[in-house]
Write a structure and sequence with these properties.
It is found in: Cytoplasm. Pathway: Cofactor biosynthesis; pyridoxine 5'-phosphate biosynthesis; pyridoxine 5'-phosphate from D-erythrose 4-phosphate: step 4/5. This is 4-hydroxythreonine-4-phosphate dehydrogenase. Substrate binds at residues 128-129, 265, 274, 283. The chain folds into two domains: 4-140 and 270-318, Isopropylmalate Dehydrogenase, CATH 3.40.718; 149-266, Isopropylmalate Dehydrogenase. The protein starts with a strand and ends with a helix. It is α/β, with parallel strands linked by helices. The radius of gyration is 20 Å and the shape is globular. Helices cover 36% and strands 17% of the residues. The chain has eleven helices and twelve strands. The protein has a twelve-stranded mixed β-sheet with strand order 3-4-2-1-5-12-11-6-7-10-8-9, with helices on both faces.
Length: 319
C-alpha cells in the first residue's frame, strides 16, 4: 500500500500534535508519512525515521513514519518563527514530488501560516492551493469541502460579498462545474456525477423579482453545458441542503464562500475536509487553520485531519 504524504504545515500550530493523534487513531489502517523536522513533534512521540515512503506501512504499526526534513530553528507552540518558512515550503514541495513520482498515493497538507511564509521566505502565493497549482503546472483549480453528508464547491471564494456578482462570470462558473464533474468522476469514482447549482439571489431570483442573473445568464448557461454528468439548477439555496435535497446530488456548486461553507460546517463541523480538484494528483487537508491559541496544549481535535487522511486513502483506492 502506497502511503499518503502528509506535509507538516506550520510547526508552531497544532499540525504536529494532530498528526501524532491521527497516527495513533489510524496506524496501519491508513498509513501516512509525515514530512517535517522530528524535533517539532510532541515530546515522547514514537518516531520511525524513514529513507523512503515505501517503509511507512510496516512502520506505522509501532511508530509515526517520518521523512525527516531539518528546519532552521526549534519551535514554540503558538509563536511562528519566520526562520522556519523555507522548511514549511520544502515540506510541501517534497510531498508534491512524492505523489508525482508515484511513491505516495495522495497528498494531505497540514495548515500553513501565510504571514510567516511571507516574512521568512517571501512566499508569493495567495495561499496553499495556489502554490500547489503552480507546482503542478495548473492554471485553474477548484476548492471542494466534503464530508460524508455533503460536498460543496464555491465558485468564488475569499472575496467581499459585494464583489461576487462581477467576479462570477459564465467562464468561471463553467470551469467550476466542469472541473467538479471531472474530479467526482476521476477521484471519487462516481461514473456519472449529479451536480446541483445554487442560484446567486434569494429564491434563485424568483423570475427576476429578486435579481436577474439567474434569468439572464445562469440558467441559459446550465442548459448549454453538456458532459458525462447530470446538471440541475439554479436552485434556491435555502432549499438545497436538507436531507431529502442532498440525496439528489453528489455535489453542490455554490456562488460564494458562505453559501457553500455554512451548510457543511453546520452539518459536520469537526469532520469537513478540504479537497483540491483540478490537480493531477489527490490533495486533501483539514478544514481548519493553525489554531495558535491552543497549540501545544493537547486539546486540539484531530478529527478533521483524520477524515482528510481517510478521504485521501479512499479517493486513491477509487482511482
Amino acid at each position: 500500500m502506497r502511503p499518503i504524504a502528509l506535509s507538516c504545515g506550520e510547526p508552531a500550530g497544532i499540525g504536529p500534535e494532530i498528526a501524532v493523534a491521527a497516527w495513533r487513531a489510524l496506524r496501519a489502517d491508513c498509513p501516512f508519512v509525515w514530512i517535517g523536522d522530528p524535533g517539532h513533534l510532541p515530546t515522547g512521540t514514537p518516531v520511525a525515521l524513514l529513507d523512503t515512503p515505501g517503509e511507512a506501512a510496516q512502520a506505522a504499526a509501532e511508530a509515526l513514519p517520518v521523512l525527516p526534513l531539518p528546519f532552521a530553528a526549534p519551535t514554540t507552540p503558538g509563536q511562528p518563527d519566520p526562520r522556519n518558512a523555507a522548511g514549511v515550503i520544502a515540506a510541501i514541495e517534497r510531498g508534491v514530488a512524492l505523489v508525482q513520482s508515484g511513491d505516495c498515493s495522495a497528498l494531505c497538507t497540514a495548515p500553513i501560516h501565510k504571514k510567516a511564509l511571507i516574512d521568512g521566505a517571501g512566499f508569493a502565493y495567495p495561499g496553499h492551493t495556489e502554490f500547489l497549482a503552480a507546482l503542478a503546472g495548473r492554471d485553474r483549480v477548484v476548492m471542494m469541502l466534503a464530508s460524508d453528508q455533503l460536498r460543496v464547491v464555491p465558485a468564488t471564494i475569499h472575496i467581499a460579498l459585494s464583489d461576487v456578482p462581477r467576479t462570477l462570470t459564465s467562464a468561471l462558473l463553467r470551469d467550476t462545474i466542469e472541473i467538479t464533474a471531472t474530479g467526482l468522476r476521476t477521484q471519487f469514482g462516481i461514473a456519472r456525477p449529479r451536480i446541483a447549482v445554487a442560484g446567486l439571489n434569494p429564491h434563485a431570483g424568483e423570475g427576476g423579482a429578486m435579481g436577474h442573473e439567474e434569468r439572464d445568464w445562469i440558467a441559459p448557461l446550465l442548459q448549454e453545458i453538456q458532459g458525462d454528468f447530470t446538471l440541475t439548477g439554479p436552485h434556491p439555496a435555502d432549499t438545497m441542503f436538507h436531507a431529502a435535497a442532498r440525496a439528489r446530488y453528489d455535489a453542490a456548486v455554490c456562488m460564494y464562500h458562505d453559501q457553500a461553507l455554512i451548510p457543511i460546517k453546520t452539518l459536520d463541523f469537526d469532520r469537513g475536509v478540504n479537497v483540491t480538484l483540478g490537480l493531477p494528483f489527490i490533495r486533501t487537508s483539514p478544514d481548519h487553520g493553525t489554531a495558535f491559541d491552543i497549540a501545544g496544549q493537547g486539546i486540539a481535535k484531530p478529527s478533521s485531519l483524520i477524515e482528510a487522511l481517510k478521504m485521501a486513502r479512499d479517493m486513491a483506492n477509487s482511482v
